Known about the structure:
Layout: H1 3-6, H2 14-29, H3 40-64, E1 71-76, H4 82-88, E2 93-99, H5 104-113, E3 117-121, E4 134-140, H6 149-159, E5 160-169, H7 194-204, E6 208-210, E7 216-218, H8 229-233, E8 240-245, H9 256-261, H10 263-273, E9 281-286, E10 299-301
Parallel strand pairs: 1-2, 1-4, 2-3, 4-5
Antiparallel strand pairs: 5-9, 6-7, 8-9, 8-10
Helix pairs in contact: 2-3, 2-5, 3-4
Amino acid sequence: MWPELERLPIHMPWNELRERFVAPVREAFAKWITADQGHYEDQLGFAVGRLDEGAGLVRLFAITGALSRPADVLDIGSGNGGVAFAFANCRTNRVRTLDIVPNPQLRECRRELNLPVEAVVGDGGALPFATDSFDIVLLFDVFEHLPHPSDVGREVMRVLRPGGVCLVTTPARFNWLFRPDPHYGIRGLLLFPNEVQRFIVNRLFRRRIRRSDGQLQDAYDVEHTYWSAAGIAKHFPGPKLVDVIYGRQFQPPASLPEMWKEPSRAIDTLRLKLRFFQFEHLLIYKEMRPAGTLTFDPLPAG
């Protein structure tokens, strides 16, 4: 486990938390996607890995100093709650989740883990919280599923405190053009428009999920996969700064003469410039960017 996490005041050891989280998730998952579905293994790995993803995000915020003081955290579209539980394991955080309907996996995990997570049922486009209520808002693998993303973006900016940050995790279309897509495991799916994707997923590959009443239904539920960070940022109104989390340390961008002399720096510079098309995690700061944040030159937005 990362040393940054070990220094945080926590409710239980991280390895214990993971063991206790994985068991109920595996049990509940089999009721949603049957093992004969082609995307079963990929989606199961995603489900059990949400806690690890959440721990990685906690580490990021710990490094920046955002968790050095009590933080109010909202996880919108929390699913099984893995990301929320990672944040709730830190004693100084106050964590709420919000889903449009009660999530049975989240309920089972809350019972097993007994961490202080308040689960709220509500609409992301009309958040039942006061203005300036949260320091951190999480939209983890939910933004591509939103039918009205501008409504959610407006509400996120309303409930964020000045200097607060919304972290958006969503697949960049550019990254998945020739790979098995992250939702259904179909290679090259994101080369096509959404309605063609729907036909491919539901009719050609016959991907299915199981509803709460036991009946099977078509699996495709993606509204839009974005090409660029700017395409996402436009849904968040008002003054803001936008950047992406990029999992590498770079030297400062090279000048043209330097790039000719050092090809490796040229490649790094190109990757840095392309990060707004190869993102996984976007950081959207309300009104200002606090000192110490791990970002590069931000994308002008707002």
